């Protein structure tokens, strides 16, 4: 009995000790852990968007409520709030980017401490960025710090743009890094733009500096000059789900001393942090669909993960009324200053669809959303040129410029703008315009080859087209996957493309600019050069922008909006035709190991690779035969 009592007492003491240890850990957690609340790739998504499941996601009023909730939960401890860039370009609110700085001011209302530039902050060219920075400063609203360490040197120009950009950076206070103190904890926060992001901002007006070299320099300066507890990098470079060679993993691997990388640009959603070289890399997805909550502590100068959550910003979150009011104010500015020019309203219903149009993904297939967009380009050209319409052979769009889906139900002006929301035209107004140019048939074939060979590595390069068809075998050699291609006439009949004939092509300005990079990216195997009607190469892209009969640029988003608005109406509301419920047959993708299919229309690249393979096989056979002969000779000598 006494033994049992003693055993119970020991168990009780052990339980008390375990509980005490748990309480001690909790106390240490509360005392030592810091919280980093983060977003990235918000893309002007002030309002919630409908999901494919029928719910809603995002919206700044809900995001604000979650931010307040998390700050209150961590009251008395260090809470840092940051954003990793691309806070603009993605909805109608971007139309007042340069004049009202709506996105940057909204980050201030959300209590964001610091942000960095993503590539889309440069979509409106240097003058747009200058206007945004100056508008933000003059607004008097609370604003986040902007940190940017490798993208701050303006490219010299013949006018005053470079000087104006430098002055705007100085007026706002853009810097390499900033020290932010929260409850006695000192965060050194710096910003970077990655190599791929630089390639995606061809009109930035900024000189790019290697992001690894810049990070080493900045971290070195922080370590030498600052009394800091944590070094946080706001990196607009990105991660990859399929590889550990992403730019931000490379950054963590090559630069010692960074505690946390908030990773933007690739719109990644990391359900757990990536740990590389004592650095934690985190991402929470796009469009304010989640709020990232990272809790860490330092243990013997090593970063230690305490907890990590992605909080869904959905309809279960009650909106912050004050932020809702700010959003409505900006919405009214958009209506009066931008949409009124098109005779359209923010929430105007253009048509109703019985089915959704899913946003294009990395899979190599045709998509209804790509089809309806390229069809709309042909419609828009016909409307703009009227009796002077010149036949368009081909319209093309790339997945990278398709920014959102269309849900089943009513399709509004705002919904359509979100789909094709990028860029600015020569007229200085938001939205990439359509451009018209010519390509030889062999150049169109090379364009189809880009779609066939590059999409698996770069999903944004996937193409969708109208007026043409192409077929490719995914098992063929890279840059020689296309097996058939040609023209699709309006009556559905098909005809071949002649290699040396010029054909009229229409696409968006950005896609046109990217065509000139094909030769470099394909190591000279493929070549595409937008041309004038006489075959000369286009050197001034602004000169090939399409205008309507009143001299206005034909914007990509407006082409889609007006096309959808033209659909036959039932009870006063347009109805999306059933033909768009499934993909068109413009692109056919297949996989075959049939030798005939593998060698059909083989180009010099395929034949060279086959020759190399044949030589390697012959070399192996020769080596094996030589080894056999030596062995036979050795045996004969022994006899």
Short description:
This protein is an alpha/beta fold and 639 residues long.
Overall description:
This protein is an alpha/beta fold and 639 residues long. The chain has three domains: 44-312, Purple Acid Phosphatase, chain A, domain 2 (4-Layer Sandwich); 345-590, Alpha-Beta Complex (5'-nucleotidase,  domain 2); 605-639. It is 36% helix and 21% strand. The strands form nine sheets. It has a six-stranded mixed β-sheet with strand order 8-9-11-12-14-13. Helix 12 packs across helix 16 (556-565). It is globular. Mean pLDDT is 90; it is low at 1-30.
Throw out a few tags for this protein:
single chain; 639 residues; alpha/beta; Purple Acid Phosphatase, chain A, domain 2; 5'-nucleotidase,  domain 2; 3 domains; 4-stranded mixed beta sheet; 28 strands; 21% strand
- Average pLDDT, rounded to a whole number, is 90
Q: What's the alpha carbon Rg, rounded to whole Å?
A: 29 Å
CATH first level of the largest domain? Alpha Beta
Second-tier CATH architecture of the largest domain: 4-Layer Sandwich
Strand content: 15-25%
Backbone structural class: alpha/beta
Name the strands of the widest sheet in spatial order. 8-9-11-12-14-13
Low-confidence stretches: 1-30
Terminal CA distance reads 90 Å
Number of strands: 28
CATH topological fold name of the largest domain: Purple Acid Phosphatase, chain A, domain 2
Number of helices: 18
CATH superfamily of the largest domain: Metallo-dependent phosphatases
Categorize the overall geometry: globular
Number of domains: 3
């Amino acid at each position: 009995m006494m033994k049992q009592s003693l055993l119970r007492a020991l168990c009780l003491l052990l339980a008390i000790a375990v509980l005490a240890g748990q309480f001690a850990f909790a106390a240490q957690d509360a005392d030592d852990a810091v919280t980093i609340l983060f977003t990235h790739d918000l893309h002007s998504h002030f309002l919630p968007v409908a999901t494919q499941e029928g719910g809603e996601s995002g919206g700044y009023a809900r995001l604000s409520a979650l931010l307040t909730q998390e700050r209150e939960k961590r009251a008395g401890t260090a809470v840092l709030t940051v954003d990793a860039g691309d806070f603009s370009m993605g909805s109608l609110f971007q139309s007042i980017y340069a004049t009202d700085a709506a996105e940057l001011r909204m980050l201030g209302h959300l209590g964001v401490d610091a942000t960095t530039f993503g590539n889309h902050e440069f979509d409106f060219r240097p003058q747009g960025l200058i206007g945004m920075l100056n508008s933000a400063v003059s607004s008097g609203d609370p604003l986040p710090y902007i940190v940017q360490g490798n993208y701050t040197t303006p490219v010299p120009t013949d006018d005053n743009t470079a000087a104006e950009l430098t002055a705007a950076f100085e007026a706002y206070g853009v810097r390499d890094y900033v020290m932010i103190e929260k409850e006695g904890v000192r965060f050194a926060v710096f910003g970077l733009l990655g190599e791929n992001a630089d390639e995606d901002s061809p009109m930035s007006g900024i000189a790019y500096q290697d992001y690894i070299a810049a990070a080493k320099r900045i971290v070195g300066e922080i370590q030498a000059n600052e009394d800091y507890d944590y070094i946080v990098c706001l990196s607009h470079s990105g991660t990859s789900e399929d590889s550990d060679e992403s730019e931000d993993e490379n950054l963590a691997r090559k630069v010692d001393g960074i505690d946390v990388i908030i990773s933007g640009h690739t719109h990644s959603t990391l359900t757990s942090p990536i740990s590389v070289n004592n650095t934690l890399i985190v991402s929470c997805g796009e469009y304010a669909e989640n709020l990232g909550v990272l809790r860490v502590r330092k243990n013997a100068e090593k970063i230690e993960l305490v907890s990590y959550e992605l909080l869904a910003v959905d309809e279960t979150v009650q909106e912050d009324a004050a932020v809702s009011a700010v959003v409505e104010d900006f919405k009214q500015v958009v209506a009066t200053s931008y949409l009124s020019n098109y005779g359209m309203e923010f929430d105007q219903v253009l048509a109703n669809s019985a089915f959704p149009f899913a946003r294009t993904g990395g899979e190599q297939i045709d998509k209804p959303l790509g089809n309806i967009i390229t069809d709309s380009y042909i419609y828009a050209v016909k409307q703009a040129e009227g009796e002077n319409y010149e036949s368009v052979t081909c319209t093309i769009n790339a997945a990278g410029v398709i920014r959102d889906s269309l849900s089943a139900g009513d399709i509004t002006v705002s919904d359509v703008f979100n789909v094709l929301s990028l860029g600015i035209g020569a007229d200085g107004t938001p939205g990439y315009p359509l451009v018209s140019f010519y390509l030889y048939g062999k150049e169109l074939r090379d364009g189809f080859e880009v779609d066939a060979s590059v999409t698996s590595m770069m999903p944004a390069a996937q193409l969708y087209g109208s007026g043409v068809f192409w077929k490719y075998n995914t098992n063929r050699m890279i840059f020689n996957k296309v097996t058939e291609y040609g023209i699709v006439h309006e009556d559905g009949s098909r005809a071949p493309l002649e290699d040396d004939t010029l054909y009229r092509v229409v696409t968006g300005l950005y896609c046109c600019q990217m065509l000139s990079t094909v030769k470099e990216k394909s190591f000279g195997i493929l070549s595409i050069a937008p041309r004038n009607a006489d075959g000369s190469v286009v050197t001034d892209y602004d000169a090939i922008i399409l205008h309507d009969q009143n001299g206005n640029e034909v914007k990509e988003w407006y082409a889609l909006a007006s096309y959808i608005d033209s659909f036959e109406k039932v009870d006063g509301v347009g109805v999306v035709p059933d033909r768009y419920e499934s993909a068109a047959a413009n692109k056919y993708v297949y996989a075959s190991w049939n030798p005939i299919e593998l060698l059909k229309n083989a180009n010099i690249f395929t034949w060279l690779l086959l020759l190399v393979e044949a030589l390697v096989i012959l070399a192996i056979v020769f080596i094996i035969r030589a080894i056999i002969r030596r062995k036979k000779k050795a045996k004969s000598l022994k006899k």
